[in-house]
Amino acid sequence: MRIGILGTGGMATALGGAWTTAGHDVLIGGRDQERAERTAALVGAAGHGSLTDAARHGEAVLVAVPATQAPHLVDHLAADLAGRTVVDCTNPITPTGEGLMLAVDGATSVARQLAATAPDAHVVKAFNLCHVSIWTLRPPTFEDVPLAVPYCADHPAAATVTETLISSIGCTPAACGGLARAAYLEATAALAIGLWWTGGQPRAAFPSPGEVPHP
Ligand SMILES: NC(=O)c1ccc[n+]([C@@H]2O[C@H](COP(=O)([O-])OP(=O)(O)OC[C@H]3O[C@@H](n4cnc5c(N)ncnc54)[C@H](OP(=O)(O)O)[C@@H]3O)[C@@H](O)[C@H]2O)c1
């Protein structure tokens, strides 16, 4: 699959590397061409270019810039992103005296803001729950169980593209409903990251009822 990446930082490197290893045609797009070239070389991507180049290249386009910058960037690229699957991995979180808080009104989400600003793009929320280091694992597997990657999507075709992005790097897609539920993925990240920062282990907090031993 052709994948464009908006951004040249940690997530662009980790996911760009994973998708390149999986055989996808990845183009790293950045506002700084030296950095885009360096990141592309680091991960063995097929190419690098401007943010516009990345938006035009991808059947799928990963938004890997700060959450505060993402709506403006996607607005600027809206025409180029039309008809493409736009994968939003951003986390709109900010430290406050009360702990890590969402930086958007909890009734909405960055993903919905992106969808509103680029209505012809097919926005998906995914890949935001795990730290960048997890995406560098080949594959991300824990205790022989592939990592589950929750995602929210409105468009069936974009859901299919997202499932390919997830399964091709050895993970298991976990459909979590439409984009109206992306706010929950963003809030979950705020809660989980806040727990990690205070020494907690969110992974241990979500056993399913099916795991309760029978007497
Ligand atoms: N790090 C994690 O563990 C993690 C995990 C899950 C999700 N996320 C989310 O993924 C996104 C990227 O995180 P990251 O760790 O990759 O960040 P990062 O390493 O700081 O990289 C951010 C990238 O965004 C670019 N950028 C910043 N402002 C921009 C703008 N206005 N227009 C275009 N490009 C801009 C930067 O370009 P320059 O180099 O030119 O400044 C850089 O390439 C964030 O939204 C974050 O919340 C991160």
TrEMBL record:
Q: Name one GO molecular function term.
A: oxidoreductase activity
Q: Which residues form the signal peptide?
A: none
Recite the UniProt keywords alphabetically: Oxidoreductase
| Family annotation (Gene3D superfamilies) | NAD(P)-binding Rossmann-like Domain
Indicate the segments annotated as coiled coil, or none if absent: none
Q: Does the keyword Oxidoreductase apply?
A: yes
Q: Which residues form the Pyrroline-5-carboxylate reductase catalytic N-terminal domain?
A: 2-92
Q: Which InterPro entries match?
A: NAD(P)-bd_dom_sf (IPR036291), P5C_Rdtase_cat_N (IPR028939), STEAP_metalloreductase (IPR051267)
The name this protein carries in UniProt is Pyrroline-5-carboxylate reductase catalytic N-terminal domain-containing protein
